[in-house]
Write a structure and sequence with these properties.
Elements: H1 2-12, H2 17-25, E1 51-57, H3 60-68, E2 73-81, H4 90-93, E3 101-108, H5 115-126, E4 134-135, E5 138-139, E6 145-149, H6 152-168, E7 178-181, E8 185-187, H7 195-198, H8 203-219
Parallel strand pairs: 6-7
Antiparallel strand pairs: 1-3, 1-6, 2-3, 2-8, 4-5
Helix pairs in contact: 3-5, 3-8
Length: 238
C-alpha cells in the first residue's frame, strides 16, 4: 500500500524527488473534506479529574495530530485497540487480521473540553465517519472508524450523537462508525508518536493530515491551540 511505502521511504530517508512528485499527484491520494456539524444534543457531565476517550479514525498520525492541537487535551497517544496485547505491534496490526484498529487515546480535562466536543471534532475534521474499513488511501479493518467507550455515559453520548447526525443528514452516506467498550489500549511504537509534528513535510502527512489540523483551526477556532501537546514531553512509549 502507498502509505506503507511512504513510511519506509521516510524512515529510511530514501525518497527521491520523482517518488515524492508522483506521490503528491496520485489521483487515489485524497484528503477527506471537513464537514461542519452541529454540537451533540447530549453530552457527558463535566466531572473533576482527567477523563479518557479512545477513538479510531484511519491512520493514527493524523488523528493524534488533530487532538494534540486541541485545547483541554492533556495527552493524545497513538496506539492499538480492539485486539490482544500479543498482536499490538505495527507489523502485525498492518496485516488487518488482529482485530486491532489504529487508535488514539485522549486524556482530557472535562472542565475545559467535553467528551461531546471531542466527538464533534472527531466526526468533523479528524476523519470521514462514513468510510467503512478504510480512510483516504488506507484500506483494511485496522483503519476502521470506531469509538471505544470507557464508561456507560460515553456510550450513551456516542450513540445519541450518531443518531442525531444521521437524522440531520449532514453526510451524504450513513455513519459507519462502530461502538464498542474499550477492553485495552496499547501505545504504539515510539517512532509513531508525534509523527505529524516531527514530519510535517512527509508527503503522506502534508497531503492527508496537515489539512485536518488546518480545518481544526478554521472550524473549531475556540478549541485550537498552536503549540501541540506532545507525547514525548509527557509519556513513555514503547
Amino acid at each position: 500500500m502507498r502509505r506503507q511505502l511512504f513510511r519506509r521511504l521516510s524512515l529510511a530517508a530514501a525518497a527521491g524527488a520523482l517518488a515524492v512528485t508522483t506521490a503528491l499527484t496520485a489521483p487515489t491520494f485524497a484528503a477527506e473534506d471537513a464537514v461542519v456539524i452541529p454540537a451533540p444534543a447530549v453530552d457527558a457531565q463535566a466531572d473533576d479529574g482527567t477523563q479518557t476517550a479512545v477513538i479510531a479514525g484511519g491512520c493514527f498520525w493524523g488523528v493524534q495530530g488533530v487532538f494534540q492541537h486541541t485545547g483541554g487535551v492533556v495527552s493524545a497517544v497513538s496506539g492499538y485497540a480492539g485486539g490482544s496485547k500479543a498482536t499490538a505491534n505495527y507489523d502485525t496490526v498492518s496485516t488487518g487480521t488482529t482485530g486491532h484498529a489504529e487508535s488514539v487515546e485522549i486524556k482530557f480535562d472535562p472542565k475545559k473540553i467535553s467528551y461531546g466536543r471531542i466527538l464533534q471534532i472527531y466526526f468533523s475534521v479528524a476523519h470521514d465517519p462514513t468510510q467503512l474499513n478504510r480512510q483516504g488511501p488506507d484500506s483494511g479493518t485496522q483503519y476502521r472508524s470506531e469509538i471505544f467507550t470507557t464508561t456507560p455515559e460515553q456510550k450513551k453520548v456516542a450513540e445519541a450523537y450518531i443518531a442525531q447526525l444521521n437524522a440531520a443528514k449532514v453526510y451524504k452516506k450513513p455513519i459507519a462508525t462502530r461502538l464498542s467498550a474499550l477492553q485495552a489500549f496499547y501505545p504504539a511504537e515510539g517512532y509513531h508518536q508525534d509523527y505529524l509534528t516531527l514530519h510535517p513535510n512527509q508527503p503522506y502527512i502534508a497531503y492527508n493530515d496537515i489539512p485536518k489540523v488546518q480545518n481544526l483551526k478554521k472550524i473549531f477556532a475556540d478549541s485550537y491551540i498552536e503549540k501541540p501537546t506532545l507525547v514525548n514531553a509527557a509519556h513513555a512509549t514503547n
